[in-house]
Each structure stands twice: as C-alpha cells, then as structure tokens.
Amino acid sequence: MTLYVVDSSVAVKWYVPEAHSDSAASLLDESNELVAPDLLAAEFGNALWKKCRRGELSDSEVRSIVEAFQAVPLQIYSSLTLLEAAVEIALRTARTVYDCLYVALALAFNSTLVTADSRLLEGLRESGLAVCAQHVGQLSG
Predict the structure, then answer these.
(1) Rounded to whole angstroms, how far apart are CA atoms 67 and 84?
(2) CA separation (Å) from 90 to 58, 77, 102, 124?
(3) Is the pLDDT of residue 140 over 80?
(4) pLDDT of res. 139
(5) Which stretch of DSSP H or E encloses residue 84?
(6) Contact at 8 Å (CB) between 131 and 14?
(7) What mean pLDDT comes out for the span 113-137?
(8) Beta-bridge mates of residue 76
(9) Structural domain tally of the chain?
(10) For residue 64, what are the domain limits?
(11) CB neighbours of 137 closer than 8 A, spacing ≥ 6?
C-alpha cells in the first residue's frame, strides 16, 4: 500500500472535471492510503463554495460533492500536532503555513504530498524540499 498526503487542490479534482482530474482520481484506488491535515475539510469546502459563487457548480452539486467527500477513506491528522514543523517549513520556503501543514505531514510519514499547486512545488524546489512533493499531473491516471 502506498501512502499519499493529498491537499484540497487534488481532492476537488475527484469531483470537478479539471486538468489532471483523471490523475487525481487514480489516488482513490484501494491500493493507496490517503492522509491529510484537518485543514483539508475547510479548504475543500471553501474551494467548492468559490466554484458555486462563480457559477461553476450549483448549490445542490456542492452538497452532493460534500456528501461524497465524507465517504472517502481518508485519515485526518490534527494541524496542531503539525504546527511547529509547518511554521519552520513556511519560514524556509516562503509558502503559507496552510500549505506547509501538508508538507509537514508528508515529511512526518516519509511520504509524498500530491498537489496541483505549482507555486508550492516551486517553493519546495527552491528550498530543497521537493523530494517530498509531486504534481498530480505526474501521476499515471
């Protein structure tokens, strides 16, 4: 079983057709174990809300997606336990603490963060932490 840390940019692609949605969906294979900090739920919900406000999703679609998301076998970890490491990573990479919570979790599990956030990946590359993250488009899907 392969363990992956997923962020909201990937989770949204499970339900909304976007670039790399097929690759993101490949993570849902039962041979993968998915983990995320508890921040994921708020970021995921906010991304859906934004899409609804822009007219990309209806209210009922958002509600259905939220219900489906809650059924994903995803292990959630407290941001509080990741905070110290996330702040250190944020200081090193000049990326937000929000983003660095995902990085901290990937480092804690010696696993890979899968994201569609190119700016985060660039910050990780520049700081030497790119080894713990991968663009969702690099997955085979």
Answers:
(1) 32
(2) 35, 19, 11, 10
(3) no
(4) 86
(5) helix 79-93
(6) no
(7) 93
(8) 36
(9) 1
(10) 2-138
(11) 19, 20, 23, 116
